[in-house]
Amino acid sequence: MKKEKVYTVDVFWDGPIAGVADFDGSPYYFDVIEDDVETEQGALNFTLVALNAEIFQLVLENIDIRLRWRIAFENGETSYDTEPALPNDKIQFDMNRNKIDSYLFQHQSVAVIKKGIFSEIEKDLYEVVWS
Questions:
Q1: What value, to the nearest 5°, has the Cα angle with vertex 8 and ends 43 and 81?
Q2: Which of 30, 54, 80, 89 has the most neighbouring CB atoms within 10 Å?
Q3: Phi, psi for residue 54 in degrees, rounded to 5
Q4: What's the domain range around 36?
Q5: 3-state secondary structure string, the chain?
Q6: Strand-pair partners of 31
């Protein structure tokens, strides 16, 4: 089983349930299928939507924006109520998020369904195996 990189976790509930990870070496948005029952091995069913280069760049930009916020928060330079972006980054973050969401909505019909098992390799850093 091939371990794939997880770039970001947008939603976490007892493990990653939405975000961006590689599938067969290319970036995809993953989202858990609601009301799915976890298997004995911890696998859940996810919809996977392939990301084009433009959308993936927006995802990476938002990861950087979140990282700048996190560093500032941990250094006491901003409050939690500004999360996920510093005030100077908020407009760009929201514009990126809107473009990403629109893309995902438009491409939902070509999503594939795969079982995913996530493992944490260090704090807040994951990898996934798809089957």
A1: 120
A2: 30
A3: -65, -45
A4: 3-130
A5: CCEEEEEEEEEECCCEEEEEEEECCEEEEEEECCCCCCCCCCCEEEEEEECCHHHHHHHHHHHHHHHHHHHHHHCCCCCHHHCCCCCCCHHHHHHHHHHHHHHHHHHHHHCEEEEEEEEEEECCEEEEEEC
A6: 18, 47
Kindly tell me if the per-residue pLDDT of 25 is higher than 70.
yes
Q: What is d(CA 29, CA 7) in angstroms, rounded to the nearest whole number? A: 10
45 phi/psi in degrees, rounded to 5: -85, 135
Average pLDDT, whole number, for the chain?
Answer: 93
What pTM was computed for the model?
0.90
Six-digit token string for 1: 């089983």
62's CB contacts (< 8 A; 6+ apart) are 8, 84, 93, 96, 97, 100
pLDDT tens digit string along 64-120?
A: 999 999 999 999 999 999 999 999 999 999 999 999 999 999 999 999 999 999 999
Number of domain units in the chain = 1
**% of the chain surpassing 90 pLDDT:** 85
